[in-house]
Automatic annotation (TrEMBL):
Source organism phylogeny: Bacteria, Bacillati, Actinomycetota, Actinomycetes, Micrococcales
Cell cycle as UniProt keyword: no
Species of origin: Leifsonella bigeumensis
Entry's family note: Belongs to the MQO family.
Record field: catalytic activity: (S)-malate + a quinone = a quinol + oxaloacetate
Entry-linked SUPFAM superfamilies: FAD/NAD(P)-binding domain (SSF51905)
Cofactor requirement: FAD
Entry protein name: Probable malate:quinone oxidoreductase
Pathway membership, UniProt: Carbohydrate metabolism; tricarboxylic acid cycle; oxaloacetate from (S)-malate (quinone route): step 1/1
A Pfam family this chain is assigned to: Mqo
EC number: 1.1.5.4
Keywords from the named record: FAD, Flavoprotein, Oxidoreductase, Tricarboxylic acid cycle
Length: 491
């Protein structure tokens, strides 16, 4: 597309983030032209693929790493409240799209699955009880149950208890309001809506370069499949939502805001079973406590996954290392990402995370028997013949400059914007997809501040709580959760 007729919005990467941003902007500016560039033959095949992510619908109902145990014995629930509220924002937007018939039946992408936390050992039980006491009266966590009674826990998740020593001190919490989300299906559904309403999807088309021209437009260099010549298009606004590939493209864009960022890739493996009899015994997402030195994304969990209407179980993750930034990426991704501006932050982050490095080494050296022993801590009667190993997607954790330490390793997501809001990119991982809508709302506010006032009524139509904190309005919490549960058929 020539500079005389540029694209209004170019979305690089066909994952849940690009699909979410494109869908929001389509509601706000129906006349804008949108084009999606995906290097693979289909959208939603990297981090958004259901077997490449945990798909919990992260809402801190069961993820213990979002509630910090403070030295004085109290529990800091601020991160849990924030993440839960962000997920409720995503649910409101999906509900709006379902009511407008912009998305198909909600069971295509979201299923009701209880969320549980499960621990053993006196110290862990004491922590879980304090966590429960800190959360149970908060409106976003209303209905949370706690028990140390093996019979009660058996009624919640029989596979946790069968074969477990009666003398072991255990505890669990449960939230029936939990969900399982197939972000691959949701990505495809959102993309189908966009293409049905004028957006153009270009698959097998890899973006190889970004350059801002003097007139403010972005020149995007593209490489198609073998046998086709490279091409260029021009865009007024560019979003780099290419998962692990985002860092390299932001570096190529030349924006100063991207300098100093680095990435630390972590791969993962899971054990999976599709045995119908075993799957039928366990309908829950059960999270435990991470090992000492383990990154938050390595918290062990035994999950019900519902993909294409069929339930399976997945346990893990077992952390590993690959220098690739994408599952389909290059072995040179990590070394080629090192620049003069980020080498000091990367070295500083490595120095301060030697425990993480040792954890990864021990995980890489762990044999099949050791890995299966971890599953048996959750499911004592597990049999190796029922399970097989799958490789999950790559997660590239953010490394950024820090005035005191030189560089820090950040477990989370980071929006990078530049060139007066004409380009933005997303770095990082968890909680990622579950909070795609609030992340994109933040991006919109940063990149289009001059349009935000005019767009606010539309945003409030899509997301009734927009501009408010649900946690500050108990009555609004109950109304919002009930409304979205009804539309998304989660009752």
């Amino acid at each position: 597309m020539s500079p005389a007729n540029p694209i209004d919005v170019a979305l690089i990467g066909g994952g849940i983030m690009s699909a979410t941003l494109g869908t929001i902007l389509k509601q706000l500016e129906p006349g804008w032209s949108i084009r999606i560039f995906e290097a693979l033959p289909e959208v939603g095949q990297e981090s958004s693929n259901p077997w490449n992510n945990a798909g919990t619908g992260h809402s801190a109902l069961c993820e213990l790493n979002y509630t910090k145990d403070l030295p004085d014995g109290t529990i800091d629930i601020s991160s849990a409240v924030k993440i839960n509220e962000q997920f409720q924002v995503s649910r409101q937007f999906w509900s709006y799209l379902v009511k407008k018939d912009f998305l198909p039946a909600p069971e295509d992408f979201i299923s009701p699955v209880p969320h549980m936390s499960f621990v053993w050992g006196d110290d862990n039980v004491a922590f879980l009880k304090r966590r429960f006491d800190a959360l149970k009266d908060h409106p976003l966590f209303a209905g949370m149950e706690y028990s140390e009674d093996p019979a009660v826990i058996y009624s919640w998740a029989p596979t946790l208890m069968a074969g477990r020593p009666k003398s072991q001190h255990i505890a669990a919490t449960r939230m029936e309001a939990g969900t399982d989300v197939d972000f691959g299906a949701l990505t495809r559904d959102l993309t189908s809506y966009l293409t049905a309403n004028g957006a153009v999807l270009s698959t097998d088309e890899k973006v190889t370069g970004l350059h801002r021209m003097r007139d403010g437009l972005w020149r995007i260099r593209l490489r198609r499949a073998i046998g086709k010549s490279p091409s260029t298009v021009h865009a007024r606004f560019v979003f780099v939502g290419a998962g692990g590939g985002a860092l390299k493209l932001l570096q190529k864009s030349g924006i100063p805001e991207a300098r100093g960022y680095g990435g630390f890739p972590v791969s993962g493996q899971f054990l999976r079973t599709d045995n119908p009899a075993l799957v039928a015994k366990h309908r829950a997402k059960v999270y435990g406590k991470a090992s000492v030195g383990a990154p938050p994304m390595s918290v062990p969990h035994l999950d019900t996954r519902v993909v294409d209407g069929t339930a399976s179980l997945m346990f893990g993750p077992y952390a590993g290392f690959s220098p690739k930034f994408l599952k389909t990426g290059s072995w040179l991704d990590l070394p080629l990402s090192i620049r003069p501006g980020n080498i000091i932050p990367m070295l500083a982050a490595f120095k301060d995370n030697l425990d993480l490095s040792w954890y990864l080494i021990t995980q890489l050296l762990a044999g099949k028997r050791t890995k299966f022993a971890a599953l048996r801590e959750f499911m004592p009667d597990a049999r190796p013949s029922d399970w097989y190993q799958i490789t999950a997607g790559q997660r590239v954790q953010v490394i950024k400059k820090d005035a005191k330490k030189g560089g820090i390793l950040q477990f989370g997501t980071e929006v990078v914007t530049g060139a007066a809001g004409s380009i933005a990119g997303l770095l990082g991982a968890s909680p990622g997809a579950s909070t795609a809508v609030p992340i994109m709302l933040d991006l919109i506010g940063r990149c289009f501040p001059d349009r935000l006032e005019a767009w606010t009524p539309g945003l409030r139509t899509m997301i009734p709580s927009y501009g408010k904190n649900l946690s500050d309005a108990p009555a609004l919490v109950g109304k919002t959760l009930a409304a979205t549960a009804k539309v998304l058929e989660l009752n």
